[in-house]
Amino acid sequence: MTNEVLGSVRGLLPMIAERADKVDESRRVSEQVIRELGDAGMFKMLQPRRYGGTESNPVHFYEVVRAVSGVCGSTGWLASVLGVHPWHLALFDDRAQQDVWGHDDSVLVSSAYAPVGRLVPVEGGYRLTGDWHFSSGCEHASWALLGAMVVGTAGRPVDFMTALVPRSDYRIHDVWDVVGMRGTASNEISAEDVFVPDYRIKRNYETAQLRGPGQKVNRGPLYRLPFATLFTTAVAAPGVGVVAGCYERYLTFMRERVRLSLGGGRFVDDQFAQVAVARASSEIDAAILQMDRNVRELWELAEAGEELPMGLRLRVRRDQVRATERALDAIDLLFKTAGGSSLSRGNAIERSWRDAHAGSVHVANEPERALALFGRGAFGLPVEDNLV
């Protein structure tokens, strides 16, 4: 199948690239860019057809994410994170989906999944209080998916949940001023004793078990895939795209470079530079090929209505965190071999280096935990984790 959204988004890439410096300086992706990505179909690729979406093959979604990230890391990150949330919302009770998309199917949803909020059961739902860090693109969104713990009568957590909350029930605090991915505006959200009805609450364990009320109305294969696959790959894909885009710009820039040190001569004639390019390109290719292979295999199994084996789900997480590691290895190599010219603020190599490293610190990109989970599974030990 052709990726029609990619064709539409490609026409926006020169404009997004031209604005990348301003995005980095202002710490904002403009409303116009978000709107044009929406018009191109970016944010509806994983949205149910019942609400104007296309229920696309997720491999195509990540392909678009990498393309956008290749010209602006912050814009690509928002395209990915805001674009994956319609998939998660589709797992909620249909009343929750109706609340969000019933009058406008272009409404966007942000998230802060860390279960730092506190949910207290009351009649008909829960009272929610909390402060959440790092809700990427929250200023572009009208709703938020917020992680929280249900507190029992003894004051101890008894369950982990995700609450869907409208913009009117929380406050946004502009605190995002960081070294990389500066334009994602991943600001803080706070809520104080707001009511959340039962149908806008979803158990994390239930999601990890591939169950949810939304699947009763959204029956396509897309909604039989694991949260861990869709979300963690959405967090890894922008970094890989950033590095892939930087690699292409690196080649263009370095072809014309003449060394002023190390004996002079053209950079492209240096055998060490040639080896560095080979290593970096191989790391990028391996990252993309492994991630796409795994998601494609899961998609094909879901299309066929077959079980999604735990071994494959663990492999997805293994290769997703390795993709981030591979991307960092590649960008570090490019940054180093570009020499002093990569140090000046505002050049594409410097910004890509910052963006790739900033995106890598997201908890979903933490390698050791994910790799240990794969190892447990490979040894036949039980694996219990909501991000598998």
Distance between the termini: 28 Å
Q: What is the element string, with H for helices and E for strands?
A: HHHHHHHEEEEEEEHHHHHH
Gyration radius over CA: 21 Å
Main-sheet strand order equals 5-6-2-1-3-4-7
Uncertain parts:
none
The biggest beta sheet, please?
7 strands, mixed
Mean pLDDT: 95
Count helical runs.
13
Number of strands: 7
Judged by helices, strands and strand pairing, the structural class is: alpha+beta
Helix content: 40-55%
Shape: globular
Strand content: 15-25%
Structure characterization notes:
This protein is α+β, with helices and mostly antiparallel strands and 388 residues long. It has helices at residues 4-10, 13-18, 20-26, 31-39, 58-69, 73-89, 94-101, 204-208, 227-254, 271-303, 310-337, 348-360, 367-378; strands at 109-122, 125-135, 143-151, 157-166, 171-173, 187-197, 201-203. A seven-stranded mixed beta sheet has the order 5-6-2-1-3-4-7. Strand 1 and strand 2 (125-135) form a beta hairpin. Helix 5 (58-69) packs parallel to helix 9. It is globular and about 75 Å long.
